[in-house]
Design goal:
mainly beta, 4 helices, 20 strands
């Protein structure tokens, strides 16, 4: 962040003639937000609520910077947040810092950059570089990935070759894994087509394809699928010789082959109302037997009444790591309705996991002025008491946010 702010200060200083600088753009955004959460007393993790920050209200102020100096692009953010109970946290991050160049039809990128692929709204099987969580309630500026990227464009074809995380250890996993990925794109009269191939240091080979088509003026359909030789999964291994763990039992493990697939459609009317439906399958999500073992472990921890309360709460807090995965169940269904007005922009979506009947209901309302944007939203978790979303430490949360760009 010091590098970005030093660069912006130099750009804004009046002591340097504009003619001495290459073409420059610089944008600032200020954001303030408040978030209120309600703890879930029905969760099996409730005894660890204080450790997990459940029901904790927070406020934050943030400044975002994005710009370009010649062939160098950059983005970053700095923030201060305060939670009750809790103290003030101040931090910053460089989200992007990269160089771009061209040689004939070839385009080069070197550095840290956001590289998002695929066509889905709620989940993206082909997003193998950025690996973005599409289900966050509050929009966040993405952090890029270190890449060496080569792109080729023509009128209807595009090809991208990415070497992600060069110099990383061969043992790195997930977003940090060293990998070579290729994406091909073709625009035809019937549909936009996507092809994907990837080789990772740990996950090995992966192949995928996707499409997006507009069969009617108001209807868009899309889908994608990916097969992988290996998947990185979060695995819990609880101790057998002692009743309670003395360290987190959860770790990433590289396992067997998997499939991911998504299909969806979106209708948009002339009145700016849109309706989206998506269904997807994620073969890297935990199985029902794994969740049964997780529930049994939580019940067993609660039964160790002779152990100190802090030890039992700590074990439950470790088990909450399992609920932080992008998809808790393999099969998922998403329904969304929105109105894209110029001033008022309401939206509502409902995520359902048929395997256990759990669901997530989210709603938001935004007001857009000339520059100022004010947004409020809420999310609540529904379903049977033993469904996974009803086991989250929070029962729901709400937020209010104001954003002002410069």
């Amino acid at each position: 962040m010091k590098l970005l702010f030093a660069l912006s200060a130099a750009l804004l200083s009046g002591g340097v003639s504009a003619a001495d600088w290459p073409e420059t753009t610089l944008d600032w955004t200020l954001r303030a937000q408040a978030e209120a959460r309600s703890a879930n007393p029905d969760s099996s993790l409730a005894p660890a609520a204080h450790m997990l920050g459940a029901g904790r209200d927070c406020g934050a102020g943030e400044v975002r910077l994005r710009g370009r100096v010649g062939q160098v692009g950059f983005a970053g953010q700095a923030w201060a947040a305060s939670c009750d109970p809790g103290g003030v946290d101040r931090d910053g991050r460089v989200d992007e810092l990269f160089w771009e160049g061209e040689a004939g039809p070839l385009h080069f990128t070197l550095g840290k950059k956001v590289v998002s692929w695929d066509v889905g709204f709620g989940f993206r099987p082909l997003d193998v570089v950025q690996r973005e969580n599409r289900r966050a309630l509050i929009d966040q500026q993405l952090e890029g990935v270190p890449v060496v990227m080569l792109e080729h464009f023509s009128s209807h074809l595009a090809s991208t070759l990415v070497f992600a995380n060069p110099g990383q250890s061969d043992e790195a996993l997930r977003r940090d894994e060293q990998a070579l990925a290729w994406r091909g794109f073709a625009q035809t009269s019937m549909a936009d087509l996507h092809l994907l191939a990837r080789w990772g240091a740990q996950e090995r080979a992966s192949l995928g394809a996707g499409f997006s088509a507009v069969p009617l003026d108001s209807l868009e359909v899309h889908g994608s699928a990916r097969w992988g030789q290996r998947a990185t999964r979060l695995v819990g291994t609880w101790p057998s010789a002692i009743p309670l763990a003395t360290a987190s039992p959860w770790r990433d493990e590289v396992g067997g082959a998997f499939w991911q697939a998504l299909i969806g459609a979106q209708w948009t009317g002339e009145n700016k109302i849109s309706v989206l439906a998506e269904a997807w399958y994620d073969g890297t999500a935990p199985t029902e037997s794994e969740w049964d073992a997780w529930r049994a472990r939580n019940a067993a921890i609660g039964g160790f009444t002779y152990a100190p309360e802090i030890a039992r709460a700590g074990n439950l807090a470790w088990n909450a790591q399992a609920l932080g995965q992008v998809n808790l169940q393999c099969a998922n269904l998403l329904l969304r309705a929105a109105y894209g007005g110029d001033t008022w922009q309401p939206e509502i979506d409902w995520l359902l996991t048929p395997a256990d009947g759990g669901s997530v209901l989210s709603a938001a309302l935004a007001w857009q002025g000339d520059r100022l944007r004010i947004e409020a939203g809420l999310r609540t978790y529904l379903g049977p008491a033993d469904s996974l979303y009803r086991q989250l430490p929070d029962r729901g949360n709400a937020y209010l946010m104001a954003t002002l760009p410069f």
